[in-house]
Amino acid sequence: MRMISARFILHFLFVLFAMLLALASAQTHADAFGSNNDREMLIIAVSALPPEGRETLHLIKQGGPFPYPRDGVIFSNFEKRLPKRERGYYREFTVKTPGARNRGARRIVCGQPVECYYSADHYQTFRRIME
After folding, report:
1. Same-domain pairing of 44 and 101
2. Which of 56, 92, 98, 120 is the most buried (most CB within 10 A)?
3. What is the DSSP letter of 5?
4. Per-residue pLDDT reduced to its tens digit, 34-67
5. Count of beta carbons in the 10 Å neighbourhood of residue 86
6. Are 19 and 82 members of one domain?
């Protein structure tokens, strides 16, 4: 069996360290900007929103008044389904669901400046709203 030189081992360790550093840097970049990029986000046109969604969007743009007390509260994006932003960036608003006794599952979540997303399934999926 051949002996491996100390120089080879040092070179190997240096390359391994450089690769680990590159991987850690890539993960830090992904964490900083969120794994869910706007370019990957599905889009929905305002005209394709349900009528109640268009009404909610109109209320958001005019600053209210909103029909539900929780409209305008901070949406924390814990599941990271929207692009990562600082805490307090996103606000959630209820889209009325005909026949529902409560707020229902439909929401519009907006950031500042107005960047809005529609969810028909209580935050499981989002579509970016485009004018």
Report:
1. yes
2. 56
3. P
4. 445 555 789 999 999 999 999 999 999 999 999 9
5. 7
6. no
Backbone φ, ψ for residue 116 (5° rounding): -120, 150
Q: Which residues contact 43 (CB under 8 A, 6 or more apart)?
A: 127, 128, 129, 130
**Is 92 among the residues known to form the active site?**
yes
**Tokens at 19, concatenated:** 């690769």
29, 92, 115, 131: the catalytic one is 92
The parent domain of residue 46 ranges over 38-130
Do 60 and 75 sit in the same domain of this protein?
Answer: yes
Cα distance between residue 131 and residue 127, in whole Å: 13
The C-alpha atoms of residue 125 and residue 120 are separated, in whole angstroms, by 8
Catalytic residue among 11, 40, 122, 131: 122
Phi, psi angle pair for 128, to nearest 5° = -75, 130
Same-domain check for residues 47 and 21:
no
